[in-house]
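Justification of computing resources. Each target in the renewal requires a structure prediction run like the one illustrated here; the chain below, 248 residues long, is used simply to show the kind of job we budget for.
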Amino acid sequence: MKQLILVRHGESEWNKLNLFTGWTDVDLTEAGRKEAYESGKLLKAEGYRPTLCFTSYLKRAVKTLNEILDAMNMDYLPVEKSWRLNEKSYGAIQGLNKADTAAKYGDEQVLLWRRSFDTQPPALDMHDERSPRMDARYDEIPDNEIPLTESLKDTIARLLPYYRGTILPAFENHDQILVVAHGNSLRGIVKELKGMSNEEIIKFNLPTAVPYVFEFDENMQLVNDHMLGDPEVIAAKMQSVANQAKKK
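Resulting structure tokens:
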């Protein structure tokens, strides 16, 4: 049996402040590091032994993966990083408080910016200091592919070629693969695997630092998926994510 383990990064500094983060490279909080480490302990206790890992270019995902591997005593595992696993770009609303933005524009508009399938937030200027074009780590990306804003549809469009062309083919040589990334990039993978509709994915909330395991048969057909951990704790985390952009 092949298994794909997805983990959203632990609480970041801007998660704690309830700010739109996107491609802004913020660190984990102490609570985020702890929940990531606990995620690794849980994976180890449940007998999981991934042999290859993938993550994004953003430190909150990279450090979550590091904490997980440290807890599993598997720091030696090979890790591949890609900007295609980065969070959705929130464009010009990156750095704004989610609840304040909802109070200004309304819950429905902010929900569309956060979770609709094809509505983009206002775009950044290419030379805005928040633009990926101003960050050397993204020098490899052509100007016409630089995300200055993204809908979920856009995020999935730049993610899926990497998922289909790099992550899935890796199962030829690996039985368990661990991917640590972000709420929206991972939702793109979940949507693909479970055949979720655009409406369903809008309402789906990935909890932080909770391992989400997908199991495949010998033909790489999905046969089972489940999250590891206390169902009540997972439900509370999912509700917390859902509440982030509501007006105070």
